[in-house]
């Protein structure tokens, strides 16, 4: 249940609350932090506001589900993680991918050895996002790596690195006229000869799939690698249909956000302060990899 909503502008918060039947609306995040009926806060503000907003809630003892990227850079992520651990408060980066049944099936195949030792990951994620002004603005944390790159990096870490960082990263890209990264290719090398090749674009539509291969075979998410509902494996297509939406959707497969929400609920009921599926240590690794990739393309 959505108990309350907050925005910097009270009118916007109230309009959202009326539209979706949310009981309370606030014109500041400080007021939301004081609401005793809020069990967990989803922070979906613009990227530069992730650090101050996250710190506000964590310091008030409020569990936080932080929209990815966790923050702008590894130093900011480290501040959030340190605060959560010092206060003993739940914090998780919102990579909803990890809670889709199709993703979990792929991860199980990899961990159970169905493909042999996973050696190669190929993935691409691209959309024509010219109609999203914030992605073109350096001051708003724009660019494709911060918006889409984390999806591929978290996948490579989980499937090839076991959560551990790669031994090498190489990134090549082109910049938008505003100076943000527009299209980027990233390769990652892992111990044990694992190799990932990932392409991201906010200018071009791409199929959006990912494939993982090993000496015994391969498995593929044919589309929507960030929110998959199908898996190709062993000559068969496995489907994982989503629940039907109750409201019009802004993005494909958005009803799959319920998987992430349910996971956070289960963590809180168990008294956990971080997720075993999306641990904070991995968020810190992802942040460092994003920093390195962005530096290599000239940011």
TrEMBL record:
One MF annotation (Gene Ontology) recorded for this entry: trans-1,2-dihydrobenzene-1,2-diol dehydrogenase activity
Enzyme class: oxidoreductase
Gene Ontology terms describing biological process: D-xylose catabolic process
Coiled coil start-end: none
Alphabetical keyword list: Oxidoreductase
Pfam families membership: GFO_IDH_MocA, GFO_IDH_MocA_C3
Catalytic function, reaction form: D-xylose + NADP(+) = D-xylono-1,5-lactone + NADPH + H(+); (1R,2R)-1,2-dihydrobenzene-1,2-diol + NADP(+) = catechol + NADPH + H(+)
Alphabetical list of Gene3D superfamilies matching this protein: Dihydrodipicolinate Reductase, domain 2 (3.30.360.10), NAD(P)-binding Rossmann-like Domain (3.40.50.720)
Occurrences of domain GFO/IDH/MocA-like oxidoreductase (ranges): 103-206
EC number: 1.1.1.179, 1.3.1.20
Keyword Oxidoreductase included in the entry's annotation: yes
Annotated Gfo/Idh/MocA-like oxidoreductase N-terminal domain residues: 1-95
Similarity annotation: Belongs to the Gfo/Idh/MocA family.
The protein, known as: Trans-1,2-dihydrobenzene-1,2-diol dehydrogenase
Organism for this UniProt entry: Irena cyanogastra (Philippine fairy-bluebird)
Gene: Dhdh
